[in-house]
């Protein structure tokens, strides 16, 4: 309470007034640190400290349409116009992961973690231990393509642990990244990396829970503005514009006046009820997807390296065929080499090729390229591909065990048959890796032996001493000339090929017999290449992980709809931008209570235009409908005359910050503005009676009880500039950042002496 000894101070104290190079269209404070992420009009992401020191700038190369922080502040999610969601490291802006969950622009992002914290860690079952680290070293990284500098491919450096920390969710609190796109699709990802569900608001059957008879509606021409998960992950509030139509009424007979702005309430309680099971599945599956990327890139790197090496070999040795033709001979290069190996008279073309065309230096160069490529392939397999395949097998074994716990995991779609099939495919891939290594080792050995023999021959032809050269095996030279000189047994393993790998019938029969003793039921893998096996394994994983995705998607239903205000039925209204904010506050009796605030546009067809609407208790109104009462309350705040709302943000427990511009006929950059704090939890909320007809605008009931805001009665800070959206408010730090129309950023600190005093008491 204010006294004479406590002088009244301005609620906002100006801390900085800094120029910005480009106008800002999105801005979000880090939930844990004094960091502000901003997106410019030209889609650059800037990260500044509170003192306005810039830490980094990145440019995704595509238009940015949304932004949000991970709850722990260690990563930031960026929604792009093409439907991609990219995750970036807070330390340096490095790209950690890209998800293509949508096909159109991602217009809203919300990343929420489980707010129900159990104080006693001994009974907190939400912490899931990943046992992989007990048996395996850290997972391998994606190999770099040879010839590229670090960072050229977007891969993480070995010294950076951000990507590993993003994937290692063993001891993270369970969290969900929710994203909404322009076409009405909403996607859910556990830890921001494992897709677990998708719905489209156009396909939702929208009930009227307060109707005497069951009635359902559909939403058409809808455009999502905001999505917000509750702190307990049980509900999702969707703010959208669109037209509500009765399911059973033909389009020609549909009631008019239902086009406007609506608030949908979706039941996402499956995330809370099954968070332990979802945590475990997401932990294994997301790490498996990381390892799949390691294998995919490894195969790509190996294929390119071997292809380049074989190109060098063919480029040098194809000239021998031309020399044989030029000398009028009808023999093949293999025959000429075999004749030389057998001690017969050296023909002119082979002499010219070895002494003049190839030479000792040429043999050494080709040998270095081919044998070096072989060794590089072996390193990629041993350091990346094989460890990834081994860890995948272990993690699939963990999932296989979970899938057999049907009472807990069948309800989230973990199908035992599909998991068993994927487990077998991962085992077959590991067997193919071992097989490939044997083939590669043999091929490299024979190439090396062939080049040693050629060096010996060149020395003899040039009558130079050759005692210092490495020895060679004549039988291996013969095998090389017959089977490897004009063939490449390594290439088919690294590329998708329709040619079957030749396998002895005895080996095939032995593999079939092993089925009875627990061997692979798929005996045809011996005829497939490594690349084909990887493709089949990846396909089996997608099928197995699609089942939980589909199961969870079906269990998310619409429970209620709250029509807010009408909009003109025009194409322009489909893209209307409405300042809004959705925040959940802790309530002792009901757990979490949701505050929804929004501006009613001045061109709205409603008679409550240019007002600020605030509602609370929307999530809990359903539980009270049996008692014929409603916990839904709302209030309308009339914006002071001569002003219009630019943006708003709910701030801490029951406070709302309004950013108001002075209405003027002059240019956008002229005039003044103000920032206002309203103590929302002290406002005279009015209980709203819910109608069974969704084309009744509920807020129209409040038109006779509108509360008029007065600049002299509220906490107000005048700003000597015209301002534009966004308004970035940090509830944890008590900081607000506004952006002037003249490309300036103003940072204010909220004075909370009165609030702190009351909290202490």
Number of distinct helices: 13
Radius of gyration: 34 Å
| Secondary structure: number of strands | 31
The portion of residues forming beta strands comes to 25-35%
**What is the 3D shape?**
elongated
Class from secondary-structure proportions: alpha+beta
Measured as a percent range, the helix fraction is 25-40%
- Uncertain residue segments: 1-9, 118-126, 148-160, 250-257, 623-629, 753-761
Walk me through this protein's architecture.
It contains 13 helices and 31 strands. It has 761 residues and is an alpha+beta fold. The radius of gyration is 34 Å and the shape is elongated. The longest helix has 56 residues, at 348-403. A hairpin with a 3-residue loop joins strand 30 (735-740) and strand 31 (744-750). The strands form 7 sheets. Strands 19, 20, 21, 22, 26 and 27 form a 6-stranded mixed beta sheet that branches. The protein has a 5-stranded antiparallel beta sheet with strand order 14-15-16-17-18, with no helix packed on it.
